[in-house]
């Protein structure tokens, strides 16, 4: 009985996370706009005034609260899959880091759990190092939701935001970037390991400009927790996904998981093990204006380090020896 109750609590903890991601921003936008036309209009006016005054805060490091990152609900979230964190070596507080996270998956559950919460003690594992998870900048324009994601230590994955973290906040900053973005999320499918990386060099240039070490991160199992409905090429839905990807920065994936309390279809992810492996840092020199040759060189070193990490840990993380990593 106790075991069953614990599993239900874990499922609910994940369900609230999915609903928060999908609905919290748009729900509070609608509520605040509605209140504008009621006797409670002052609430909306006060908040929107605050929003204007506070507009640039997300790109200036935001407002993190360790109490939010340490909520007990994240431990239940972790145990639902379960999610593990493995580090090849601790990160030094004397350096800054740009960590590329792969693959994107549908909702990046492992990245959220390991780097936006303390469920697996990322800060205790790396004393003096502050983790920041870069996410879509547009999410910080959604009222109330922006406060929530800032409190967990998330930051806009915009140039101004990332440059601020790496140049104005001293050392010991670890910026986690899900490099593949929307394009990679559309490639997400159980049992496949396809990364959109060949043409993604901006994060390498950023590391060179600020002398931040590059670190590859791979989340084994991330592509296995949802089944994605892949639309036929040239269909209207497929064209809509590409349109959103190009102009909005994310692609509206059609995915299915399991129910909250049953194995029927639903939007909860499947409870399959996830393991994020943080690789060894690649030392990067400080080059304020890096050349294309320098960017290409360190991009190649990064891909090499990522492939080595994948091969070293794939069997221990549940993959077969024949599993291969494809980079496009």
* Quantity of strands, as a count: 12
Beta fraction of the residues? 15-25%
The profile of the biggest β sheet is: 7 strands, mixed
Total DSSP helices: 12
Rg is: 20 Å
Overall 3D form:
globular
What is the first-to-last residue Cα distance?
Answer: 48 Å
Order of helices and strands: HHHHEEHHEHEHEHEHEEHEEEHE
Unreliable residue stretches: none
Class from helix and strand fractions: alpha/beta
Structure description:
By secondary structure, the protein is an alpha/beta fold. Helix content is 41%, strand content 16%. The protein is built from twelve helices and twelve strands. It has helices at residues 2-35, 41-53, 66-69, 73-80, 109-115, 122-125, 145-151, 159-167, 181-185, 202-210, 236-247, 292-313, and strands at residues 83-87, 97-102, 130-135, 154-156, 173-178, 194-195, 213-220, 227-228, 255-258, 265-266, 274-278, 326-327. The strands form three sheets. It has a seven-stranded mixed β-sheet with strand order 1-11-7-2-5-3-4, with helices on both faces. Strands 8-9-10 form a three-stranded antiparallel β-sheet, with no helix packed on it. A two-stranded parallel ribbon has the order 6-12. Strand 9 and strand 10 (265-266) form a beta hairpin. Helix 1 (2-35) packs across helix 4 (73-80). The mean pLDDT is 93.
